[in-house]
Amino acid sequence: QVQLVESGGGLVQPGGSLRLSCVASGSFSRLYVMNWYRQAPGKQRELVGSITWGGGANYVDSVKGRFTISRDNAKNTVYLQMNSLIPEDTAVYYCHSAGVWGQGTQVTVSS
Question: Closest by alpha carbon to 80, among 12, 72, 100?
């Protein structure tokens, strides 16, 4: 088991960018697939995208072309780069792997 801690959220205007980080403590090599989820107010939590150990990633249609997931295994860290943000991206963002959830970081997109 590992501990996952997200950071990097905040308030940003539409069209802006944020980069979220998720740092894992211990046994990072066991986290073959890392996931980013988000949950908007009043909505179900949804899978935003996933990345494998080797860096292959996939995304939900609503963020394709705008979001990029990457990972630095040497730093025990996975990233979510979010560009061209829109208000619909407002949510708490969580990293997840192997049954372990981070505590979440708030992203608010508003003018």
Answer: 72
